[in-house]
């Protein structure tokens, strides 16, 4: 009697807990669909708006400067009369270019270092991880400023700067994955069969870590875009005449103080919304690869 008494009280709590499962799944599915739609809209805007809108994004019209949003200019104009919609689209194109290129370069470097450290082990592992720790001890933005200052302003110096400051996490992830794979039976069988370390790393270890490396690259794109925008906002990344989201926000500071909100709002939205959408898709992918670690990324 006493053992069966708690059962009726626990049954509603258990059913209530289970009832949240479909709700969570539907909410997660809605976030993924929304993220996919936003990413698709971002790609379409970058590809289609410049050819379809026959306007020069650098055309100056002082008679139309700082006009609020209207049918002629949906996002308004900036302080020299340039159309903000076109400027935001071109700025998003530059930020995406820097983010994707830097993420790919950082992933290649991080995967190579992490795979070499995990596969070689011993003193090579210790030396490579000390290099990773040394780079990690310096703040990313400070190191990025130092690297950008060594080159003339342009897109590729920013790509190099962002890539050289963002490969560290990928190296750690790949190294940990390689260390866990080294104890697998098929790896032991390959070593027992006479395969060299190089052959084992190329034929068995590296293909197994590519999904994790690809996920790290996708997760790195939003971070790289923010890093590029921060450098451009500080005036250290791209030339001032180049439309990037960081330079657009930086040039709109005076307009915001004067009460014109649109030159700051729309570039900020073009930076925040696509990066959150990319992070949402990457979080869903991470949950599919490793369901034990549920992503908390929200839109």
Automatic annotation (TrEMBL):
Note whether Transmembrane helix occurs among the keywords.
yes
Instruction: Specify the domain of life of the species encoding this protein.
Output: Bacteria
**Region called Disordered, residue ranges:** 1-24
Subcellular location as annotated: Cell membrane
Q: Which residues form the signal peptide?
A: none
**Tagged with keyword Transmembrane helix:** yes
- All copies of the ABC transmembrane type-1 domain together span 92-282
Q: Which residues cross the membrane?
A: 94-120, 127-149, 205-226, 265-285
- Main localization is membrane
Entry-linked CDD domains: TM_PBP2 (cd06261)
Q: Which family does it belong to?
A: Belongs to the binding-protein-dependent transport system permease family.
Q: What is this protein's record name?
A: ABC transporter permease
